[in-house]
Design a protein that fits this description.
9 strands, 2 domains, alpha/beta, two-stranded antiparallel ribbon
């Protein structure tokens, strides 16, 4: 579902994904400019194929084309990136060349590498991702580390996405904490369910569809959320990898970027235990506004924490004891 100023969680909205530090919107080559004929020919060595790929990716304005070309070659060969050096001088057979050609053309359309690979690394774990969920990003590690700084037993993640936040918290408190994760899409919940199984915490988590708190029961000593916080007016300026490929409802509330915080804040007093903590990710200019919304909902002890680049990234608030 697409977020609205008073709407529910976005598809995949539990992820850190401020795209503004990334490349701004730039030209994506029209499909007619991506050649139908192969650009990677059988018989090229891995090095030569990478050189060809870098040239085409750079022409499509892909950031870090050399890195992406090597990662995608490893994918085409069915090996890890760490194994690539052992194969880089070997000629590509027809199957490998065809596979690599297809991957490079997908990247030329600015499809994120994580979508092409179907996975993204986050805090020493690998999570399945798809076009239904946002990629977990390094900025969100700030939220997870703050959450782990104090004990927790019962965790709620509003806007679960791939589950990177909640599942990391449960895996790092295995046998101690249990959790609930909600989102508005069956496709999102399926991705999160897979990741819960791969993280070994399936028995500790309950994953289901809910419009924020709509179908949630009980109280929690820790509630976390990374809701859609990009204002609608900012969407055209996002990098193509984000704007064109990640779920729009997980990025924006189609309003001022604060609608999700207002919707969540209304019910925090019902679901957050006395002295419980609420942590949410924010955009770099939203700290004052989000703190004001949470104070108005009766929370106290507000703290604003920056990411590694010095930008405001997480607000922490507490329910009075």
């Amino acid at each position: 579902m697409s977020g609205t100023p008073e709407g529910g969680p976005s598809q995949g909205g539990a992820f850190g994904r401020d795209p503004r530090p990334e490349a701004k919107a730039d030209a994506v080559p029209p499909l007619r400019d991506i050649p139908m004929q192969p650009i990677i020919k059988p018989g090229l060595t891995g090095n030569a194929a990478v050189s060809v790929a870098v040239s085409w990716l750079a022409g499509a304005h892909v950031p870090a084309p050399a890195r992406d070309a090597r990662v995608l070659l490893a994918q085409a060969l069915g090996i890890s990136s760490g194994q690539l050096a052992a194969y880089i001088l070997d000629p590509l057979n027809a199957d490998a060349a065809r596979a690599y050609d297809g991957l490079i053309k997908r990247r030329m359309q600015r499809e994120p590498v994580s979508h092409i690979l179907g996975q993204r690394h986050f805090m020493n774990r690998t999570f399945r991702v798809s076009s239904a969920v946002l990629d977990p990003r390094p900025e969100t590690e700030v939220l997870v580390r703050l959450a782990k700084a104090e004990p927790y037993r019962r965790v709620l993640d509003l806007g679960l996405g791939s589950g990177a936040i909640l599942l990391t918290l449960l895996a790092d408190a295995r046998g101690v904490a249990t959790g609930v994760g909600v989102d508005t899409s069956e496709a999102v919940c399926e991705v999160a369910h897979y990741n819960a199984q791969s993280c070994g915490v399936l028995e500790a988590v309950d994953i289901f569809i809910s419009n924020w708190f709509e179908w949630v029961e009980g109280r929690f000593d820790l509630i976390v959320s990374n809701p859609p916080y990009i204002a609608a007016a900012e969407m055209p300026e996002l990098a193509p990898e984000v704007r064109d490929w990640e779920p729009r409802g997980a990025l924006t509330d189609e309003g001022d970027g604060l609608g999700a915080y207002r919707a969540i804040a209304r019910d925090l007093a019902t679901y957050l235990e006395p002295a419980g903590r609420f942590l949410c990710e924010i955009g770099p200019t939203q700290a004052d506004a989000v703190c004001g919304i949470l104070e108005g909902a009766g929370l106290s002890g507000l703290e604003v924490h920056a990411d590694l680049d010095g930008r405001d990234r997480v607000v922490l608030a507490r329910m009075p004891a």
